[in-house]
User: What shape does this take?
Amino acid sequence: MKNISLFVILTLSGSALLAAQSVDAKSIYKNRCMICHTTKAVAPEEKGKLLGPPADEVMYHVKERYPDKEKAVVFMVDYIMQPSPDKALCASMDKFGLMPAMKGTLSPEDARAVSALMFEKFPRPDFAKAEKKDRSKITFKTIDANGDGFVTPEEFRNFRAKRNHIDPKTFKNDLYFKRIDLNGDGKMDPSEFEAMKRARSGK
Ligand code: HEC
Assistant: This one.
């Protein structure tokens, strides 16, 4: 009898703990992330107003590279504590600038909880489907607007601006472009384009 009640107490407190954790992750998300990472589907004309990539976009990129939840969470915790241009998986830092570091203002436990929550909820299936379809159409030639066999930072910005329905002048830097440009000649060639695609999917 004693054992049974102990079992009941443990089970109950266990599930109460889980519930408390998920509530907590939600409020961390609301208080610390949502201002920049909206959970909504964003209409093209709204894109210019964002402070950061929508949660759907962030998690599309993270999951493309890390389909495994544990690996994704490890990556995310490290990133949000101390973001850097060489760690970033998506090119958003050119558009918005780098995400501010949360080290010292967010505990590792909270970072884990909120990362796990994002992994579970995003991207929504309809976003993922549309994004995949849209991306499958992108080739080197689509980006190389003047067809000279090289993509300049300007062509890359113009291409991304058009895709996101924003003004290319609003781009803050070319940090991601510098990473793609492996030989550092200021241009992206087809082999660097392929390398970028491989790096994104981790293959
Ligand atoms: C002040 C705005 C801001 C806040 C607040 C913010 N982020 Fe970000 N985040 C950004 C921007 C901008 C980027 C894209 C640039 C980059 O990758 O650094 C980004 C990128 C990311 C990425 C993708 C990194 C990559 O490139 O692969 C993850 C994951 C992320 N944020 C998680 C979070 C989480 C979780 C929170 C809340 C704890 C959060 N962010 C809060 C602005 C913000």
